[in-house]
Write a structure and sequence with these properties.
alpha+beta; Conserved hypothetical protein from pyrococcus furiosus pfu- 392566-001, domain 2; 24% strand; single chain; 407 residues; six-stranded antiparallel β-sheet; 13 helices
Length: 407
């Protein structure tokens, strides 16, 4: 079995692509999705968040939601909004956010290689979230949300993918959040074969985002058990060279100082960090450096060198903050479940951290240096797991550009 293979994608006809494409299912709640889809009957949110077409307050995991998603998908096919390609293809997908551009390959990735850890993970999954994706895939007989994968950049593959973009794209869409989505179809069999062979030589691919979708695809493949060459043994993915991917900071806010006064807390912080007051908001400039917003003032924290271990998980900035401050000083030992801590994606800016503290909702905020792709791959190669909320990838992949039908 190949690491990746082409597939006959189910996708919008060009004249309806802009009306179909939608944000990923997991970045909007039901109310936000309902507002975004208002007046847009062909928005993919009617498939990915089908509760918006049921009475308000419907549980998103109610069986009726998955049935409605299947009904809406079939309706879009019947109306000619979505059409399936007549032969297996690869697709090239370019994302543009301001000056940042990344171009990757849309392919069906091997479940067997996911199961054997050739497609490597760096996060734990939650059974309830896996169950949701399994039910969605089973109801639709398709995977509609792509898994974001990365490969170690290779010039020959990068050139092959870039060569496709010399022609006009099939779609070019400017989403309402300012992100550009361009999409090409790769039908040339020679290029398809060269791409397949080049990826087959790789030691590994890396899941950047989509651990629950890939785990769900594995479960569905095992249940269907249709034979080694069946399309159900592959899952929808977009694979980017690691050097092009953009990880933003994923910042932390905490509700209280664990019974400490501000002065007592700062003294405890000084045990593991060099602390320097700053006039302006602190965006850390390198690993081991943190910003802290407390009592209306910013501080720059630098971890003492002897506190940085060698192992790939322990040396992550998210681990350094957790192991030297959040747990021993603030008493937060399980950030996955502790209600005293919250996480703020870097796309929201440092002013959001100030607002959370100034509102009185939070007592202290920490700005982080972004985790690097090299660190992510090192953790995955070591078969380890990152702490929660270690990475925030931008720009986000759109839903609806292409779906992977399982038969």
């Amino acid at each position: 079995m190949s690491l990746i293979r082409p597939f006959a994608g189910l996708r919008p006809v060009p004249e309806h692509a802009a009306a179909v494409v939608a944000p990923p299912y997991d970045v909007l709640n039901s109310d936000e999705a309902r507002q975004r889809a208002a007046g847009r009957p062909w928005s993919f949110l009617h498939i990915s968040k089908a509760e918006i077409d049921l009475p308000q307050g419907t549980n998103p995991h109610d069986p009726a939601v998955y049935a409605k998603a299947a009904e809406n998908l079939q309706k879009m096919v019947d109306k000619g909004i979505l059409r399936r390609d007549d032969k297996p293809c690869y697709y090239v997908y370019r994302l543009t956010m301001g000056q940042h551009v990344q171009t990757g390959l849309v392919a069906a990735a091997s479940v067997a290689d996911y199961d054997s850890n050739r497609i490597r993970k760096h996060e734990f999954t939650r059974p309830d979230k896996e169950d949701d994706r399994v039910r969605q895939i089973e109801a639709l007989n398709a995977q509609t949300g792509p898994v974001l994968l990365a490969y170690r950049s290779q010039e020959d593959i990068d050139r092959m993918i870039a060569s496709v973009t010399s022609s006009a794209p099939e779609y070019e869409i400017a989403a309402d959040d300012g992100i550009g989505h361009a999409f090409w179809v790769v039908k040339d069999q020679g290029l398809i074969d060269r791409l397949t062979a080049a990826f087959d030589k790789m030691d590994a691919l890396y899941i950047a985002d989509g651990h629950h979708r890939s785990a769900a695809a594995s479960r569905v493949a095992a249940t269907l058990n249709r034979g080694p060459d069946a399309m159900s043994n592959y899952f929808l993915s977009v694979i980017f060279p690691h050097k092009q991917m953009k990880i933003l900071d994923y910042n932390r806010v905490v509700k209280d100082l664990n019974g400490l006064s501000g002065a007592e807390f700062r003294k405890r912080v000084d045990e593991a960090f060099e602390t320097r007051p700053e006039k302006d908001a602190v965006a850390p400039g390198r690993p081991g450096e943190f910003g802290m917003y407390l009592d209306g003032r910013w501080y720059r924290l630098t971890i003492h060198a002897d506190r940085v271990p060698a192992d790939p998980v322990g040396r992550l900035d998210v681990s350094l903050l957790a192991n030297n401050l959040l747990e021993p000083v603030l008493g937060i030992s399980d950030p996955r479940r502790d209600p005293r801590i919250d996480f703020v994606g870097g796309i929201r800016g440092l002013r959001e951290l100030e607002k959370r503290v100034e509102s009185g909702d939070m007592a202290v905020a920490f700005s982080m240096f972004p985790t690097s792709m090299d660190d992510l791959m090192a953790v995955a190669d070591a078969n380890e797991v990152m702490p929660p909320k270690s990475t925030w990838f931008e720009p986000k992949l759109a839903d609806g550009l292409v779906s992977h039908v399982l038969d």
